[in-house]
Amino acid sequence: MDRRAAFGAFGAAAVTAAVPMAAFADGAVSSATVGRARGIYGDRIAALKGAVAAGDFGAVAAEKNAFILFNSGAYPGAKTKDKKAAAIASTNDIFAAIRAGDKAALSSAYTKYVADNEITPLPDVSNSNGQGYSGDYDYKARSSAG
Q1: Number of separate helices (H) and strands (E) present in the chain
Q2: Cβ(29)–Cβ(77) under 8 Å?
Q3: Mind spelling out the 3-state secondary structure of 91-134?
Q4: 76 in Cβ contact with 28 (< 8 Å)
Q5: What pLDDT score was predicted for residue 103?
Q6: How far apart are CA 40 and CA 46, in angstroms?
Q7: Could you read off the pLDDT of 20-74 as tens digits, one per residue?
Q8: Cβ neighbours of residue 8 under 8 Å, at least 6 residues apart?
Q9: What domains sit in the chain, N to C, each tagged with a CATH number?
């Protein structure tokens, strides 16, 4: 190998090393992040049951972000695209009922949303009946399940 070929090979190696590699990890789509979204935002949505029964439109409207974040976090990626679209449509029904001021429509849309998305509140766990979380960074650490 002569000097010119050696410098050419060295240059090609330097260019290859300088180009950043594409990231192969996708932490946004994992069972842990889906469970976290279902736990955090699903619990906030489940907690609206009393407000919906009382017809408190303001309380439901104040939790609009919980619905948005639940829809995007519980149904990430292309595999759950249909479920996400259905959840967004149900969310739109809830907020259409709020804009119309219709308590019956709000109640039926909320009930359908909770049933279709299998939303349940986090369980109440205390030191006397068990441990609800395994570490400080667990989403249940500072909740009723902790």
Answers
A1: 7, 0
A2: yes
A3: HHHHHHHHHHCCHHHHHHHHHHHHHHCCCCCCCCCCCCCCCCCC
A4: yes
A5: 95
A6: 10
A7: 655 555 556 778 888 888 888 999 999 999 999 999 999 999 999 999 999 999 9
A8: none
A9: 31-146 (1.20.120.1740)
Of the candidates 87, 136, 139, 138, the one whose C-alpha atom is nearest the C-alpha of residue 115 is 87
User: Residue 62's CB: how many other CB atoms inside 10 A?
Assistant: 12
Look at residue 140 in the predicted model and tell me its pLDDT.
64
CA–CA distance, 137 with 94 (Å, rounded to integer): 32
Cα(108)–Cα(69) distance, integer angstroms: 21
Asked if 90 contacts 74 with a C-beta cutoff of 8 angstroms, the reply is no
Percent of the chain with pLDDT over 90: 49
* C-alpha count within 13 angstroms, C-beta hemisphere, residue 116: 19
Report the largest interatomic distance among the alpha carbons of the chain, rounded to a whole angstrom: 85
**CA distances to 18, 19, 134 from 66, in Å:** 42, 40, 24
- Beta carbons of 57 and 101 less than 8 angstroms apart: yes
CA distance 114 to 119: 5
